[in-house]
Amino acid sequence: MAEHFNASDIIETDKSSNWHHLTQHQQFDEADPLVIVSGEGMRVTDARGNEYLDATSGGVWTVNVGYGRASIADAVRDQLLAMCYFANSGGSIPGALFAERLLEKMPGMGRVYYSNSGSEANEKGYKMVRQLAHINGDGGKYKIIYRDRDYHGTTIAALSSSGQFERKNQYGPFVPGFSEFAHCCCYRCPFGKEYGSCNIECARDLETVILLEGADSVGAVVLEPITAGGGVIVPVPEYFPIIRQICNRYGVLLHIDEVVCGLGRTGTWFGYQHFDVQPDMVTMAKGLASGYAAISCTVTTEDIFQQFKAAPAERMHYFRDISTFGGCTAGPTAGLENIRIIEEENLLGNVVSMGEHLMERLLELQDKYAVIGDVRGLGLFAGLELVVDRQSKQSVDESYAMKIVAHCLSQGVMIGRTNRSFRELNNTLCLSPALIAGRRDIDDIVDAIDNALAANPL
Ligand SMILES: Cc1ncc(COP(=O)(O)O)c(C=O)c1O
Predict the structure, then answer these.
(1) What's the pLDDT at 143?
(2) Could you tell me the strand order of the sheet in which 413-414 lies?
(3) Which of 3, 74, 152, 421 is most buried by a 10 A CB count?
(4) Fold of 71-344
(5) Ligand 1 pocket by C-beta < 6 Å: which residues?
């Protein structure tokens, strides 16, 4: 399809027909939308023939194994011709095999439930919690605690469980039964403490909120292992073990949202595997099939599954949920090939070594530019928080971060930034190159930011 098009025609057709995600369309009165027509490895090309080095893995940390993977396309094509779809109330060969492969990577987890977006995978988790409250009691232990600055998706319940004001604003009223606890960003500690002399108050705040809500009413806590769109926030090593202890104390399930970190982004299969923690539920989407097909999974422990299976012979006590496209075979087929590529090419190892190089280069950049207040990240997942002044930590205006992103784009390098999360915290540049990134790619990305900062002094 990419070979046979006229650039002006396709741009005009896009402008007149396509309602872009997260986009104020007034800008297209003056300018053209970016229409991407091809990709190979780390690079994409737009309709006008401009090539970009993509440090965002498809804009939203998705294309983990890079563009143009013929083996994934071939596997999906063959599977679609053999058997494209049947509702997942039945099984399929790739559905069974991919679930088994995933569970191999997740010791302690027992079952895989298929759907087709990160938001939906999270909603499935919330529904399981609510139904378990009925199976095991009077339905009262249904509340879900989420964390300030985390994001769990776009649907109304997923938004209700998200801690980002600008994502939620104007979309209320929200679903009852969701409450927020403190974020864990040391750079802007919500308790005014310093790591080293603090008592990890950010984790302990979960207990405060559980008690405030009433422990008998709280069913689960949902957390990103590393907050992504809320500013690339890596918790300290003590964080998750404390969260787990609190969950155990109050019979609260721990749901970890791996939609961004899932499959390799941080150098382990899942982000939580860096921390000493065993979750009860894990959700994943984006990098699960590197964007070659839509797929998401809600993975639970066998114990959760058995609570549904072994529920008294009450005819409503099984998980009465369906996702039509959870029966598409393209997703698990692409997922199987995605895992095979990550293993064959030792991409987890590459993420560790290239992630170290990326972090070294970013810290050098921080020495050079006072506007970089904080550098955070793990593996090929990094954030640079930009401030007017390091002492006061006053954020730069989001227009400044936009200028840096635009300057990088003009140099042929795509980087991301936090946006529409918080008015005053849309100041973090985000880097998430594909897991195949080489040293030269990392250097080109950092050099582009260096040039952009040099050309745009505050
Ligand atoms: C951590 C996290 N969870 C869930 C989602 C929602 O995923 P989707 O857009 O596939 O519904 C996102 C999307 O960015 C995310 O970053």
Answers:
(1) 98
(2) 36-40, 43-46, 51-54, 413-414
(3) 152
(4) Aspartate Aminotransferase; domain 2 (3.40.640)
(5) 60, 117-119, 122, 151-154, 224, 228-229, 257, 259-260, 285
